[in-house]
Specification:
2 domains
């Protein structure tokens, strides 16, 4: 019995030493911005457009107001990253908390599910989100587009274009990555996919 108690004490001491060595490293990975991982990401979904033409021409736009509807833990980072991604494609967006009532182009990005499963070696995530654009800032068109409802145009309002997308990102990482670095990777992936797919559907002014 004495030998057994001694062995238990030795094992317990060894575990305490291991924990003391591992805990700081895990803390760095939980809080620091460190990445040496490779990621496999795939995005599914589609983008559709609807429009009405007046005098034979569609509206063209050069910028838009961006409204992001997402969890508070994600929204500020996503707003900044989306702005940067659209800018890289030559399209300026101005972040706002609500759709402005001035008839200017508006883009709304709504996150339905942000499921990031982080660990230092094999993180994974599933993110589902929607995006809707209206060239004339009609809030009712944006709401209908986000809900996959029919768009009802009023010819008295002139030409208009509505674009809407429904997307899903599946991501898996292999290697060493911290939680902040993985979160940053996911935000960047969602932003780039949103910008690329939506701008393919938005009639823009020539550079």
């Amino acid at each position: 019995m004495a030998d057994l108690s001694a062995r238990v004490r030795v094992v317990a001491a060894a575990l305490l030493v291991l924990l003391a060595l591992v805990a700081p490293a895990y803390g760095v990975l939980a809080l620091g911005d460190v990445s040496a991982a490779e990621f496999q990401s795939s995005t599914t979904g589609s983008t559709a457009t609807a429009s009405t033409t007046t005098n034979g021409s569609d509206p063209v736009v050069a910028n838009a107001t961006l409204v992001v509807r997402a969890p508070d833990s994600v929204r500020p980072h996503l707003e900044q990253s989306l702005s940067e991604s659209f800018a890289e494609h030559g399209f300026d967006v101005t972040v706002a908390s609500e759709i402005p009532d001035d008839g200017s182009p508006v883009l709304v990005v709504a996150v339905d599910s942000w499921n990031a499963r982080w660990n230092p070696a094999t993180p994974s995530a599933t993110i589902e989100w929607r995006a809707a654009f209206d060239a004339n800032g009609h809030e009712e068109h944006v709401a209908a587009a986000l809900a996959n409802d029919p768009i009802r145009f009023d010819s008295r309002n002139g030409s208009d274009v509505v674009a809407a997308g429904d997307y899903r990102l599946d991501d898996r990482g292999t290697g060493l990555v911290s939680r902040p670095a993985y979160d940053r990777h996911l935000v960047a992936a969602v932003s780039e996919e949103t910008a690329r797919r939506m701008l393919d559907a938005i009639p823009r002014e020539a550079a």
